[in-house]
Structure to design on (88 residues):
């Protein structure tokens, strides 16, 4: 496997792991009073719009929900990637 491909796959793995860990942290800390700030989220995006052409209906939209836990875990995942994957 190509060296650049290995680095790309490793980066995507660490990024996905950071997102999943951040989601779990936000979910489990939302009801704990002194940790509930980790579950604070911001939603932003473009609401879905629909074009109806009678034969085909096209719907498109984009929304992103980011919590404090997501930000911390993604930063941690990138730091871990840099430390672990130096030799790739």
């Amino acid at each position: 496997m190509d060296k650049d491909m290995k680095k790309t796959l490793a980066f995507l793995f660490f990024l996905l792991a950071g997102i999943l860990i951040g989601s779990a942290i936000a979910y489990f800390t939302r009801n704990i009073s002194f940790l509930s700030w980790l579950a604070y989220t911001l939603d932003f995006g473009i609401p879905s719009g629909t074009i109806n052409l009678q034969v085909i209906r096209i719907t498109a939209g984009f929304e992103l929900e980011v919590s404090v836990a997501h930000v911390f875990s993604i930063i941690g995942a990138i730091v871990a990637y840099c430390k672990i994957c130096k030799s790739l």
